[in-house]
Structures are given as C-alpha cells and as structure tokens.
Amino acid sequence: MTILITGATAGIGKATAVIFAKDGNNIIITGRRQNRLDAFKKELEEKYKVAVLSLCFDVTKRAEVQTAFSNLPDAFKDIDILVNNAGLASGLSSIQEGDIDDWEKMIDTNIKGLLYVTRTIAPGMIERKRGHIINLGSVAGKEVYPNGNIYCATKHAVDALNKSMRIDMLPHGIKVTSINPGMVETEFSIVRFHGDEERAKKAYLGLTPLNAQDIAETIYWTATRPAHVNINEVIIMPTAQANTTNAIRKA
Ligand code: NDP
Ligand code: 8X3
Question: Looking at ligand 2, which residue's alpha carbon is closest to its atom 5?
Fold first, then answer.
C-alpha cells in the first residue's frame, strides 16, 4: 500500500510513518522542515527497505498543496491511506486576550490545511474505489477546556468534517476514521507555548501521558481492520486523564 502522512517530521506523524514502514508499505512523508524530512526518509529507507517520498510544503498554502501532489512518481500515485495529521495548538489564552495570529495559524492548519489535502487526494481514491482517510481530531474536538477556545473549535470542526466525509465517501467505499487523543507528549506543547520547553513539560507533570507510539498503533489498528469494518472514531486517553478538565497528578 501507499500511505500518505502529513506532519511526519515529529510526534504522532513520525511514529505512524515508522509503523507503516515496518510493514513494508510505500510511505509519503510531509512537513515544512526539509532537514528533518531528508534525515527521516534516509532512516526509513535504510532500516525498513521501503520506498519513501518526502514532500516539503506548508499545508496552509493551497497552491503548495496542489503543486506537491500534482506530479507524483508512479510508485506513489495510488494513495491508499491518507493520515491527516499535520496540526497544532498555538497559545493558550482567554478569548478576550488571545493573539489573533495564533488563531489564524490554528484555523489555517487544522481546518483549511486538512481540507486542502483531502480535496487533493480524495478524488483519486474515489476513482480507484479504494482508500481510507484518517483524521487526527482530539478530545478537544469532543469537549472544551479553559483557554482552549480556538484550538477546541478547530478540532470540533475536524470532528464535523470527519462525520461529513464519512457520509460523502460512503457510496465510494472509502473508509473514514477520526482519532481523538487526550494528552500525548510530543512537540505539541512546545509548539503551543511558542518554544517554552519548561512550560511545555509542566503540562505532563505528575502523570504518564500517552506517547506518539500509542497513537500510531491505534491508527495502524484502524487501518488494518477487515474490508467490511470501518472504525468511525476512537477516543483515547491517558489512564490518568478522564476528560479535558479532570486528570490525576502525583505531587
Ligand atoms: P507535533 O508538534 O509533535 O507534530 C506536528 C506535526 O505537524 C509536525 O510534523 C509538523 O511539521 C506538522 N505541521 C504543523 N503545521 C504544519 C503546516 N502548516 N504544514 C505542514 N505540516 C505542519 O504534534 P503531535 O504529533 O502531537 O500532533 C499531531 C496531530 O495530533 C495534530 O493534529 C494535533 O492537533 C493532534 N493531537 C495531538 C495531541 C497531543 O496531545 N499531542 C492530542 C490530540 C490530538 P513541520 O513543523 O515540519 O511542518
Ligand atoms: C491535544 C489535547 O487536551 O492538550 O489535542 O488539547 S489537549
């Protein structure tokens, strides 16, 4: 199979690429950081002897998305699985104090970026009557939490889009799944706090969060069910976190 994973330079996307590469699939990795893409492509090719295509582009730039997929080499043309993973939180502020640049970044990446990629890839799946779109939502797309406002709104949008895609893809036999994790320790909080690593660490203080591998395994599980089974959505939490506002932390 050919697996396209957006945002594969770090965290969940990177772990997902590894798990599918171990299985011998062709992998397309994307992200904005060329140096990371280059190193990761080499690592996957050498360790797992699979074909890897790296595409460096920003999912928020519509023209870049279209160009990136306009001329795929034959080995990568027939994308079987799209993992819409690229996404971020930027800032954690009340609605009255939030930075509008942060808001635009989240809306452009988590909603518009996901849409640009999906609009580009879905028609090929429909033509081939085969495919699976896996969207990274979040527990923040199921509930809200203090100061989470815009991030939560973008992930609620992903939740709605996931349900809509499921209906639109139904006649074409294309599977659609959303993965909705609670706290996962990746670069997510470092990005949310604009590079403040100390503040990012505090998000996970006193508890064991999920890790990228936990989510990659869940994505892989949904992608490897029999043809007649579609997992519509998964909510996956650390054992120490019940929902967005209740977590147990050791002193
Ligand atoms: P990371 O910050 O570790 O990874 C995010 C990835 O997204 C990177 O590869 C980054 O690549 C890519 N990315 C971000 N913005 C863009 C962009 N504009 N264009 C292209 N690629 C982009 O975070 P996670 O792995 O934790 O997050 C992955 C997904 O999981 C996100 O959608 C996130 O919302 C979701 N999620 C995360 C949770 C968590 O607690 N960590 C919980 C629930 C959901 P690059 O910077 O190279 O462009
Ligand atoms: C990330 C989970 O609760 O930190 O989507 O926003 S949370």
Answer: 138
Least Cα distance to 170 among 134, 136, 129 occurs for: 129
CA atoms within 13 A on the CB side of 104: 4
Domain boundaries, the chain: 2-236
Q: How far is CA 190 from CA 13, 137, 182, 202, in A?
A: 16, 19, 16, 11
Class of domain 2-236: alpha beta
Ligand 1, CB within 6 Å, residue ranges: 7-13, 31-33, 36, 58-60, 85-88, 109, 113, 136, 138, 181, 183-184, 186-188, 191
Q: pTM of the prediction?
A: 0.98
| Structural contact between residues 27 and 3, judged by C-beta atoms closer than 8 angstroms | yes
Phi and psi angles of residue 2, each rounded to the nearest 5 degrees, phi first: -115, 125
Whether 199 and 193 have beta carbons less than 8 Å apart is answered as yes
- CA dihedral 90→96→97→100, nearest 10 degrees, is 50
Residues of the chain predicted below pLDDT 50 = none
Give the gyration radius of the chain's Cα atoms.
17
Is 61:68 a contact under the CB 8 Å cutoff?
no
Query: Tens digits of per-residue pLDDT, 90-107?
Result: 999 999 999 999 999 999
- Which residues have CB under 8 Å from 156's CB, separation 6+? 140, 141, 142
Considering Cα of 118, then 124, then 126, then 128, what sign does the dihedral take?
A: negative
Atom of ligand 1 nearest to the CA of 151: 34
184-229 tens-digit pLDDT: 999 999 999 999 999 999 999 999 999 999 999 999 999 999 999 9
